[in-house]
């Protein structure tokens, strides 16, 4: 964009000219092996100062690992615990609850039962001085890892970022695929061993698939891993932090680790292999805009500043969505409206000059503690529409700002085509099935498979908990002329019962499919699936086979009072690489109802 256009867009008052430069902390380092951040973590900061020098904090123990921060907040609201924020990882059996005022919640939570567990609650207050001390201690620990004894940095920030964002980038792609296939094999072997252990007390009930010999101890046939058709610039969605680099310069990019680990440094994505060229251009444009802005970048440590983050969706369809997040910091409505107008003018001009299709430009105002885009804060559309479209498998899909869509569209198409291949093999030419799309989101899998398989699919039934996603799914079904479809708002475990109203489902010709979040689905979903006699076939798409292993175990474990219904058995599996240069890999497993399983002498667990 021309310098004239940048300078022309705003008039800065004399007071605004006296901008204070943020203090540069050149000792802030990156973590070469950062702690894996779970999608369940609502707040990634250890603590923060709220209305004074003391942070009122509870440590709540005996919490189920599957419980999300959102679930805990709902529990606290139910018991009238007041304004609270929650920190919870799916790997923890505890959580932290932070309050703005002196604790009254501890009495309200005594002996509270949550998911068949009695919560244990302790006060764990932190002063602001202690918070700073914890931050500095972690910062010093990181220094020893990444600086040599003379104080010289051992790796460039760009190297550290590459190791963090694309940890396999130094390996040839064929070797990356082999590593990912090995991960799948180990995970499947672990799954089989766990099932063997569960049947030790019931040797006569042990399924054939568990007893059969396998050179690699695999529970089923594993097909060769499928490569991604695109290796670079494949991510269609990226979220970038707005901050400062090691030299104190304004930067838009990725944090070099977790803030709670003492990391507050941002490095641009110029050399990131998985970020699209369009996203890189937009990031640079955002940086140029902020350099000219009278407002400072947001600093997580001091809680001061305006510019927080930018999210970019760049699709195969060429549609582009930009979401900019700011902290209001007491800005008047007039000032915010002026900024909206300036942003719209700047990015519309930039898109025209850079020749990309800016479809949606949104602003989110957020004064909370967490990084990322919160679910409960609205978006203000300052240019274009509130959504974009993506193309896949001869379908078009509307994508809302918060909607999930596979981050590698071209590889996702390969994955869904493999799902279709598995379904085709299940049914002879004359037969068809009802497709149950569990946790369907915007309906992508069900619609794509229905369109590609034609008369193989009698009906698509999608079940989803998010109302916005259900509306998108209904729109997408209509857009792609999938007339025989139904989308149900609510929990999967409660709504699977509605299948019994369908003739074909009662006849046992229903196949379910799920593509859940990384941690898998709640065990109640698996229990409901086992109890639903209409479903004989099940396709599970996992983006983290290790975290999903418990789902596989619960699906195939012996029948008990706690896990009723005939168990399933794995039949075949295949890995599909949606994340070149990263460690993640998608695993598709086909399960069949185990009709050879004895149905008598059910024991209670």
Describe the protein in words.
- This protein is an alpha+beta fold.
- It folds into three domains: 3-15 and 235-392, OB fold (Dihydrolipoamide Acetyltransferase, E2P) (Beta Barrel), CATH 2.40.50.1070; 54-130, 2-Layer Sandwich (Alpha-Beta Plaits); 179-229 and 408-593, Rossmann fold (3-Layer(aba) Sandwich), CATH 3.40.50.150.
- It has an eight-stranded mixed β-sheet with strand order 8-23-24-22-21-18-19-20, with helices on both faces. A seven-stranded mixed β-sheet has the order 11-10-9-12-13-14-15. Strands 1, 2, 3, 6 and 7 form a five-stranded antiparallel β-sheet that branches.
- A hairpin with a 6-residue loop joins strand 2 (84-87) and strand 3 (94-99).
- The N and C termini lie far apart (67 Å).
The count of strands amounts to 24
Shape: globular
Give a short account of the largest sheet.
8 strands, mixed
**Helix fraction bin:** 25-40%
> Alpha-carbon distance between the termini?
67 Å
Active site: 543
Protein name: 132_t:CDS:1
Keywords: Methyltransferase, S-adenosyl-L-methionine, Transferase
Organism: Cetraspora pellucida
């Amino acid at each position: 964009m021309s310098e004239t256009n940048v300078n022309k867009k705003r008039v800065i008052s004399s007071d605004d000219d006296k901008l204070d430069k943020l203090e540069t902390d050149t000792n802030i380092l990156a973590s070469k092996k950062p702690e894996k951040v779970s999608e369940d973590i609502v707040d990634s900061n250890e603590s923060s100062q709220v209305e004074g020098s003391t942070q009122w904090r509870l440590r709540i123990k005996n919490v189920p690992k599957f419980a999300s921060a959102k679930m805990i907040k709902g529990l606290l609201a139910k018991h009238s615990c007041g304004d609270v924020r929650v920190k919870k990882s799916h790997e923890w059996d505890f959580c932290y609850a932070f309050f703005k005022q002196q604790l009254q919640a501890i009495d309200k939570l005594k002996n509270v039962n949550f998911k068949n567990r009695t919560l244990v609650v302790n006060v764990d207050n932190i002063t602001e001085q202690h918070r700073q001390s914890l931050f500095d201690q972690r910062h010093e620990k990181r220094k020893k890892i990444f600086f040599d004894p003379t104080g010289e940095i051992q790796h460039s920030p760009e190297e550290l970022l590459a190791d963090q964002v694309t940890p396999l980038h130094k390996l040839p792609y064929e070797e990356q695929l082999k590593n990912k296939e090995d991960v799948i094999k180990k995970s499947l072997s672990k799954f089989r061993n766990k099932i063997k252990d569960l049947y030790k007390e019931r040797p006569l009930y042990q399924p054939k698939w568990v007893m059969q010999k396998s050179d690699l101890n695999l529970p089923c046939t594993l097909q060769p891993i499928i490569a991604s058709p695109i290796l670079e610039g494949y991510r269609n969605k990226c979220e970038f932090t707005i901050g400062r680099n090691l030299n104190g310069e304004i930067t838009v990019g990725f944090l070099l680790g977790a803030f709670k680990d003492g990391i507050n440094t941002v490095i641009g994505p110029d050399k990131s292999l998985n970020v699209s060229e369009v996203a890189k251009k937009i990031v640079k444009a955002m940086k140029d805009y902020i350099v000219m802005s009278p407002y400072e970048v947001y600093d997580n440590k001091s809680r001061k500043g305006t510019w927080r983050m930018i999210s970019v969706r760049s699709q195969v369809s060429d549609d582009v969505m930009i979401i900019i997040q700011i902290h209001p910091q007491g800005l008047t409505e007039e000032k915010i409206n002026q900024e909206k107008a300036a942003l719209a003018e700047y990015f519309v001009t930039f898109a025209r000059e850079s020749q990309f299709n800016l479809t949606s430009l949104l602003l989110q105002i957020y004064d909370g503690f967490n990084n990322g885009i919160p679910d409960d804060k609205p978006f203000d559309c300052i240019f274009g529409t509130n959504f974009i479209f993506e193309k896949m498998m001869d379908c078009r899909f509307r994508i809302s700002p918060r909607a999930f869509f596979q981050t590698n569209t071209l590889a996702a198409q390969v994955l869904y085509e493999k799902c279709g291949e598995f379904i085709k093999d299940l049914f002879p030419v004359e037969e068809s099935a009802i497709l149950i799309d569990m946790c369907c989101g915007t309906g992508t899998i069900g619609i794509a498979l229905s369109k590609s398989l034609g008369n193989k699919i009698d009906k698509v039934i999608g079940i989803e908990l998010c109302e916005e996603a259900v509306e998108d799914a209904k729109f997408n079904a209509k857009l792609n002329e999938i007339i025989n479809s139904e989308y149900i708002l609510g929990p999967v475990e409660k709504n699977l019962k509605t299948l019994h109203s369908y003739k074909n489902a009662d006849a046992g010709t229903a196949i379910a499919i799920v593509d859940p979040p990384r941690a898998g689905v709640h065990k109640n979903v698996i229990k409901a699936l086992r109890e639903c006699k209409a479903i004989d076939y099940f396709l599970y798409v996992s983006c983290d086979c290790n975290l999903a292993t418990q789902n596989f175990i619960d699906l195939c474990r012996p029948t008990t009072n706690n896990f009723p219904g005939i168990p399933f058995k794995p039949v075949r599996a295949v890995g599909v690489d949606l994340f070149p240069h990263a460690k993640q890999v998608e695993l598709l497993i086909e399960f069949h109802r185990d009709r050879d399983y004895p149905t008598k002498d059910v024991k209670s667990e």
